[in-house]
Specification:
Layout (H helix, E strand, L loop, with lengths): L1 H14 L3 H8 L3 H15 L1 H35 L1
Helix pairs in contact: 1-3, 1-4, 2-3, 3-4
């Protein structure tokens, strides 16, 4: 579990990944990603945790924008058909 937490953090940092994409990549649930990063990683590697946290905070701040873009794409596809 500790190794997975470190791997998750490295993946998120290197790819600027979301929790959802990290969960898909590792074949685990989003709640497990959160558990690993929030509960396990700070005790194992605090600097790595802080870097991953910064990426996740940035993703959270942009979430509403990505959702709007996805909705726009959906309705544009519906109009084309």
């Amino acid at each position: 579990m500790e190794e997975r937490a470190v791997q998750l953090a490295q993946y998120i940092i290197e790819n600027r990944a979301t929790v959802r994409s990290a969960a898909v990549k590792f074949g685990i649930s989003k709640s497990t990603v959160h558990k690993d990063l929030q509960d396990r990683l700070p005790g194992l590697n605090r600097p790595l945790y802080l870097q991953a946290r910064a990426v996740l905070d940035e993703n959270k701040a942009q979430r509403h924008i990505r959702g709007g873009i996805a909705t726009r794409r959906k309705y544009r596809r519906d109009q084309e058909n």
